[in-house]
Design a protein that fits this description.
The complex is a heterodimer of chains A (about 280) and B (about 290). Chain A has helices spanning about 1-5, 15-40, 45-50, 60-70, 75-110, 115-125, 135-140, 150-155, 160-170, 175-185, 190-200, 200-215, 220-225, 235-240, 250-270, 275-285. Chain A is mainly alpha-helical and about 280 residues long. Chain B has about 290 residues and is mainly α. Chain B has twelve helices and two strands, in the order H-E-E-H-H-H-H-H-H-H-H-H-H-H. Chain B is globular and about 75 Å long. Chain B starts with 10 loop residues before the first helix and ends with a helix. At the A-B interface, helix 2, helix 5, helix 6, helix 7 and helix 9 of A face helix 1, helix 3, helix 4, helix 5 and helix 6 of B.
């Protein structure tokens, strides 16, 4: 009996200890690639091309990061970081604004073709960029938007997911509020700004976290439309740092760039963990 | 579901919905229509005119051994990615769930890889397995195993699978962990009092209760493997060696942009549209079920 009860649901004693060991091992294995990249970003190229490379950080941290940020390979990494920031914020803010507006229209108005519009938005769920790359590229090229921020942002901005999320949420706002606003003679947009938007704060924040990471981590789209290195985003720019021939890649610079590329999304995820998990669960539901 | 109270007027709502509709039409529906239209033509090599071929591009594709091989590659790849990301995630979530304290710290540590872009994950794994400087390939060499994913298709596949699955472990972990926390303690304690040991409880009670989450994650991970792993493959193998890691999405890219074969690339886009459509329908069918439940 005693043997059965000690490990009922939560582990105690030796079992608990073992659980922590497993957990730490798991975390170490998952973390190993990041650690190795960090170490490689703090040593010299010579230390890397004569394997095995060291397992603890070296003293070249400042040299490598300064070199990456201000010289880079094709273009300074600072430029790519800035481009990524513009793209990620543009996509997140843009998606949130157009989704808030269209969800508000769909929920709070009856107008011609409302259902048709709703289905139209719904259908965009089924059209990831990867599927329609060639024609979308032609459209963007036709508008002269290659190598521009609008070309990076606009094609990725329509999001059925965000619209649905806001629609679901608006439907839970008590009708009494809209009724009161109407009785008071408040204009719809007044109701939108004073009641709907403030009430959606948490949803907006949660969605921002998810969409920021989505925008930051884009690869294929920037790869196609930014032929000018000055417009490269950091995530797609790393691959461009590899030499095309048989030369050794300059690993310390490349891995310092990789670490720099993951810092902003990691900060967003870790610092807004609760919102992030909420956004993740909501947007996939 | 409908609102009982709505505002009057139709100009304002049309204005409000306009930005989303315009963006959808210009960047979604028009290009998708173009893809369908172009899939019916073969342009001449100079791009001056094109010849209508009906379903010729599709017939050609479906009889093309490279395209069929790409289908098989995609199937193998997505199944492996799904398994390699879900099983470790479930294992970690089960362990974390057994802890009374401290699971939050582990959760924070485990979330990291989710924020790492697939293309960056590709670079990290490429670095570890690089044939000249990679740490792991070097140690494998010491053990007498000659790792070379540049020449060996199987090793290339293994590497892109692991690199793609790695970041997904975080994602799946979060969902499994949330689902495990929602399993009523009383049910598990009752089984424990009846003498069911941990693994027996896990397989007979916990796993069935997790099945909605598991099914959801299966679909989502397959969608991920199909459409969001382009960055991993482009950075690590570029589809090689001998197309052994050319998944369908990669082939649309390489035929359309590198090979400039617009008719074929468009036909492939259309086939992918059908695949996404099917996956989305499955996802929603499942969602409906869960809502009713």
């Amino acid at each position: 009996m005693a043997r059965e009860t000690h490990g009922m649901v939560e582990k105690r004693g030796a079992g608990l200890w073992l659980t922590h060991v497993f957990m730490i091992l798991g975390v170490l294995v998952i973390f190993f690639p990041i650690w190795l990249a960090f170490v490689a970003s703090t040593v010299t190229q010579q230390e890397i091309i004569r394997p095995p490379m060291p397992i603890w950080p070296g003293d070249q941290f400042l040299v490598n990061y300064k070199n990456a940020l201000f010289s880079g390979v094709n273009v300074p990494v600072a430029t790519m970081l800035f481009n990524s920031l513009v793209m990620a914020i543009g996509i997140a803010v843009g998606k949130i604004i157009i989704s808030l507006l269209s969800a508000f229209a769909i929920v709070y108005f009856k107008f011609p073709f409302r259902t048709a519009f709703f289905w139209m938005i719904f259908l965009t769920l089924m059209l990831p960029v990867e599927v329609r790359i060639v024609p979308t590229f032609e459209v963007v090229a036709g508008f002269g938007m290659l190598n521009s921020y609008s070309g990076l942002i606009l094609p990725l901005i329509a999001s059925a997911t965000a619209t649905f999320l806001f629609r679901q949420f608006f439907l839970t706002i008590p009708d009494e509020l809209a009724e009161a606003a109407r009785v008071d003679g408040a204009k719809p947009m007044r109701f939108f700004w004073d009641i709907v938007v403030p009430m959606s704060r948490t949803n907006i924040a949660a969605l921002f976290v998810i969409l920021f990471i989505y925008g930051w981590n884009q690869y294929l789209w920037p790869l196609l439309i930014t032929t000018d290195p000055e417009m490269n985003t950091i995530v797609m720019g790393i691959k461009q740092m590899f030499p095309s021939g048989d030369d050794f890649a300059h690993w310390p610079t490349i891995l310092a760039t990789s670490i720099l590329a993951m810092i902003p999304p990691v900060i967003v995820v870790i610092s807004m963990q609760r919102l992030f998990i909420r956004g993740l669960v909501d947007s996939e539901k | 579901m409908e609102k009982r109270v709505t505002f009057r007027g139709w100009m304002l709502p049309l204005l409000l919905i306009a930005p989303q509709v315009v963006v959808s039409v210009v960047f979604f529906f028009y290009p998708a229509g173009q893809a369908i239209w172009q899939s019916l033509f073969i342009p001449d090599p100079f791009g001056l005119s094109s010849q209508f071929v009906g379903l010729g591009n599709f017939e050609f594709l479906l009889s093309d051994p490279f395209y069929r091989a790409s289908f098989v590659t995609t199937a193998v790849f997505s199944i492996l990615v799904t398994l390699c990301s879900m099983i470790p995630a479930l294992f970690l979530a089960v362990i974390a769930d057994r802890l009374i304290k401290g699971s939050g710290v582990y959760r924070t540590m485990l979330i990291w890889p989710y924020a790492v872009a697939p293309a960056v994950a590709g670079v990290l794994w490429l670095f570890m397995f690089n044939t000249r400087v990679g740490v792991i390939s070097w140690y494998l060499g010491q053990l007498g195993y000659d790792w070379n994913h540049v020449l060996n298709g199987g090793e290339a596949m293994g590497l892109v699978v692991v690199a793609s699955a790695w970041g997904r472990i975080s994602y799946n972990f979060l969902f499994f962990f949330a689902a495990l926390q929602a399993v009523p303690r009383s049910v598990i304690e009752a089984a424990a009092i009846d003498g069911a040991r941990f693994w027996r409880r896990f397989f007979t009670i916990v796993l069935p209760l997790l099945s909605p989450t598991t099914f959801f994650l299966l679909v989502v991970n397959i969608v991920y493997a199909f459409f969001e792993t382009f960055g991993v493959i482009h950075t690590i193998t570029a589809g090689g060696p001998q197309q052994s890691t050319t998944i369908l999405v990669y082939k649309v890219f390489s035929d359309g942009f590198v090979g400039q074969d617009l008719g074929s690339s468009s036909a492939q886009s259309v086939i992918l549209l059908v695949v996404v459509g099917l996956l989305t329908v499955i996802q929603f069918k499942y969602l409906e079920k869960r809502v009713h439940y």
